[in-house]
Predict the 3D structure of the following.
Amino acid sequence: MAGTGTADPVAVLAAPDIPLANVKAHLTQFQSIATANGGNRAHGRPGYLASVNYVKAQLDAVGYTTSVQSFTYSGATGYNLIADWPGGDPNNVLMTGAHLDSVTAGPGINDNGSGSAAILEVALAVARANLNPGKHLRFGWWGAEELGLRGSQYYVNNLPSAERTRIKQYLNFDMVGSPNAGYFVYDGDNSDGVGSGPGPAGSAQIEQTIQAYFTSIGVATRGTDFDGRSDYGPFIAVGIPAGGTFTGAEGVKSSAQATLWGGTAGSAFDPCYHRACDTTTNINDTALNRNADAIAYTVWELAATAPPPGSTVYSDTFETATGWTANPAGTDTATLGQWVRADPAATSSGVATQLGTTVSGTFDLVTGPLAGASAGDHDLDGGVSGIQSPVVSLPASGTLTLSFSWYLAHLNNASSADYLRVRVVGASTSTVLNVTGAATNRAAAWQTASVNISGFAGQNVRILVDAADASGASLVEAAVDDVKITQS
């Protein structure tokens, strides 16, 4: 694969096998640290800082640039450890993280020594390979996760906005060696249709990359919801795509899951979850080994390149729900015909006012999809209606082009106060389409727009579509379909 960014393209070899013995050696160190420090590695306790120092020393020795970020929670000082591998595109950061703290009840070897040890060994494998990827690699070990994601939240909230937009993907690994293991992957595209919905745009790619590894070794995976229980939460809250794996906590393995993965039905995935027995004996070596290799595969695959020239950065044909939000600012004034993703019905009043056919498939974004007894029964009325895309992470290089299909239809009772508008919103806002009405009949007819948006390179952006019937009693309809961003 070829890397892109500030450096010349480089060849990136396949991900290495991560030695299980190395990962378990880190777990042994975490166990020894806990044993020497009151039996745990919890926030504000000496065992936690000793864990930070151990990981930091490993990384410093192989050439990482490390920093320790301190914060205060519940009257105690906590610490995040951040490690950057030299090189890669600084405007295109792939970050991998895990929480390093335990609960006070025990040493926290599965929760979350397992994730911490696995990403540490992957980071060391990067150094052994002298990896020179297209993206910049960053690793993070979070403090006080057990008290409510305090460390990762502090990190994200205190990043300057320019730095935050440089993080294009975040990988999270929390509990990857559960003794009665399942193989769960965060449901980036919401294909399961449960819980919190899809992650920010780009999360589906992470999910697919992880799934590809497990498919290659013949292990079935199942989705797990972005339910906010781990350190991806602060990242997706600000629109950063995320993903990761999870082998289960206090949840009980079903008979179907035991048939799929082995293990014991009716027992918790981790019977020692948040207990003193979460020691080095509380690890499933097979699950730990598979997940460590999956982490390496995902880091190597995603870090190798920014999207190659000519590739599709983002695409939505609206055939499935992908996280567009109606009335995103809560300021819409339209009383009827608001924007929705739907299968539209055809309407007409002398001219076509709403098309029943879309550019591709059967769904589009449309103002009021129903037909009614007359053409004006479900048209846009009473003011402005808007709808906004999920966050799209744009690459930092190449020519970026936004294209989409659209129409605006109205009767001769419209005016120039009526409009269809499309904007790109990032660090600044750019209007890429602004079509106004007039006191004439305008039939609905699909047209295409293609706009250079390279000024937003390296940013996380949203696409905002709004339309207005702002001139009193007038018949106005609008639609958008097949939104795509490409890089060349």
User: Anything to note?
Assistant: The CA atoms of residues 106 and 117 lie 17 Å apart. The chain is about 25% helix and 30% strand.
